Amino acid sequence: ARAAAPPARAARAAGALTPGRAAREGGGCRARLPPGGVRVKAAAGLVTAEPVWATRSSPPFDAAAMDGVAVRAAGTAGASETTPIRLRPDAYDMVDTGDPMPDGRDAVVMREHVRYCGKAAELRAAVPPYQHVRSIGEDVSAGELLLPAGHRLRATDVAAAAAAGATHLLVRRRPVVVILPTGEEVLPIGEPTGAGEITDTNSLMLATQAREAGCEARCLPVEPDDPAGLASAVSAAVSGCDLLIVVAGSSAGRGDYTARVVAELGMLAVHGVAIRPGHPVVLGVVGRTPVLGAPGYPVSAALAFDIFAGPLLAGLAGAAPRHRPRATARLGRELASPPGLDDWVRVRLALVGGTMMATPLPRGAGTLTSLVRADALLTVPAGLAGYQRGEQVEVELLRGIDEISRTIVAMGSHDLALDLAASALRAEDPLVTLATSSVGSLGGLQALRDGLCHIAGSHLLDPATGEYTLPHLDRIMPGAGLRVVRLAHREQGLIVAAGNPSGLTGIEDLTRPGMRYINRQRGAGTRVLLDHELGKRGISPGAVGGYAREEPTHLAVAAAVAAGRGDAGLGIMAAARAFGLDFVPVTREPYDLVVTASVMDSPLLAPLWALLRSARFQAAVTELGGYTTTEMGRCIR
To answer: How far apart are CA 38 and CA 58, in angstroms?
Structure first.
């Protein structure tokens, strides 16, 4: 009932799932597989539990490999353009591709190389034996090993197994992973959250990681931070899975009970590992089931799965652990790392000037979007204090090199029109990526100078001249032959709560007692604009309450105001509209894209320039609010 094997080898491969073994070790994790294994049609993605041997040859007979006439090769000797030979009807047979070779025939002449004179076939070239003939067993011969044990079956594998005679395959069942989220503050996806409450995205992420690893996964309801309740939930869960992942509660806080419960119910092997992020990992066993206590921060949880759960699940499935490809890149900036810990850093990659550049992303364990934007992982070993700028580092790829090579990296001031462009470009061509990084206008120009990006987004005001961006270029990159493309003009103003409850009318109102201002980071064009406006009015920055509080983007400023954590912040109208906030205009400014001359005309940026000239895209940007696109796409230098 499965792919036949030599009798001595049948069904004895280590780890093969038989009904008896499933009863002893499966623990009710999954319905038992039938005694003969699974149907070959349903085996893709599973792992072979024993070798797969061919029970028939493929092809099972000598077969024609072309449409034409089957002949005896010796009968064509001497045929040429000048001395053609003619074969009588009894000396050849008409065949189509895949037909068995007729008896006495050992070669095929393609149909287009045969001329007919009446019923005789005229040949103008001699043919060697077995020309255009697939010999029996050319693909695989009966009795030959087709697939080893421990092989994860792909589409081509199941097709080859079927061709070799298999109808069923003995495979390992998929490991079953159960995720148990914990915490009173954690709510299911879709439920509204209030202050101090968060959505349970970790369960979704970990379950998806498990399925991508070839496992079955299911998520349990959220368990409150109660040791007795958690112990009961863990005891019930371990009997039905091969790996239990308890989310959160692995640290040393007042409501963290995972390590304690594992120790009471089974064996606690590890509490805390020398990695960052993900230090407070719990590893143990309850009954015969491994338990992983994953930290509650999303990045830590995802990394804990990759490092600890991935290899374990591969071992349970009887397959080799999956390894991501690696590449070498040049580090774009200095990277410090704490001693004594393996530091896993998410990085963005880009090919700039023919060199693979790696730029570290925000490193907070809770910054889930850093995983979304990451192209690779960089590990700083525990014995190193970090890497220097420009140093060659090895990275573990999360995206393919082909995708990375078509990534346009824009660094500089944050702008919603660029976010919109990123979406539009991907919709036009799924292989084109516009990756933006908000480092401020000055930071973007410096990144362009240092070869870290293709485009610098800037609206950097020069207070001495009142011009934007252009006066700074010769100071930052003298003689670089830079080009400047106008993206848009946009309205900058004070983002305030809906209804403007503080009654703000302009910059001078920021000095009111108790005012909570949300600032942008040093080097941001908006920060420069604020300082310029304050200077014109003779206002000291210290007179603005909250001046030292910084956010990295216009949307982050708007989010802080919307959440009531601030009264006002300087930003663009589109950000205010995105959060339903009010807006007090201050000025209208240009936002430009700065590129080198060589990149300006490169095929990489051609889709972006075409998009900026599109009337449809310009209309979409205008709808964001506060944008004027009449100069969009115009090269102003």
So the answer is: 22
